[in-house]
Design a protein that fits this description.
Length: 225
């Protein structure tokens, strides 16, 4: 399929991208880390399309990006102590928190049965993806690349990455996004453990929590999302 590349500064770009997302299409978006592939998580066909486009194994769950606290509550309810403190300190920013799902948030984001009791949620620090979340609600977003390949950092790299395979319906060109993928931390009550060390070092996240008296366990020993 042909791909439509839109400039992030174009007033109509967000609405065209939002329309594509509402239709169940995959849209490539700039974020505060790297380019991402976004879909509406409430549409199972859209989620399946994203897994197929990326070649992502279905046992690796998709994270959710949100625009603010109200959208956090939609997917995770109230954050428990460790998650709430990390969110207060490091959101918006490159930190994904894996937390228990809200009971009513039952969308299939992939992953083994145990992972379907949790959700990886992040509040990004980028106006384009935040604006799309504000228009549509929480979005399932993963890095824009074929599974196992380096993440795309420009709109041209997104188009090139999927040449000869398929393409996102829309690519929003927000310039260069060459940050490090987010750090992923699982939080349960007062405890936290690092599942993937990324843009934020585990020592930065872990140290302040210990100093404030919160329990923490584990280390950067696994990969989530």
């Amino acid at each position: 399929m042909s791909v439509v590349v839109l400039a992030a500064g174009d007033a109509a770009a967000l609405h065209r991208a939002a329309s594509a997302l509402a239709d169940g299409d995959v849209v490539a978006v700039p974020t505060d880390t790297v380019y991402g592939l976004a879909v509406d998580p409430s549409q199972p066909e859209a989620v399946a399309r994203l897994f197929a486009l990326k070649g992502r194994p279905d046992d690796v769950p998709l994270p959710i990006l949100v625009a603010g606290q109200d959208q956090v509550a939609m997917v995770a309810g109230g954050l428990e102590p460790a998650a709430a403190q990390l969110a207060a300190r490091f959101w918006p920013g490159p930190l994904t928190l894996v937390v228990p799902r809200r009971s009513g948030f039952t969308v299939d984001l992939g992953g083994p049965p145990a992972a379907r009791q949790t959700v990886g949620v992040r509040r990004p620090d980028h106006p384009v993806v935040v604006a799309l979340c504000e228009l549509l609600g929480p979005l399932a977003v993963t890095s824009a690349n074929l599974h196992g390949a380096p993440p795309a950092t420009t709109a041209d790299e997104v188009v090139a990455a999927f040449a000869g395979v398929d393409q996102p319906a829309v690519v929003i060109d927000g310039g260069t996004c060459d940050g490090v993928p987010s750090t992923v931390v699982e939080c349960r009550g007062p405890a936290s453990r690092c599942l993937r060390e990324g843009a934020l070092a585990w020592s930065v996240l872990h140290g302040p929590l210990d100093e404030s008296g919160d329990a923490s366990d584990g280390g950067p020993d696994a990969l989530w999302g």
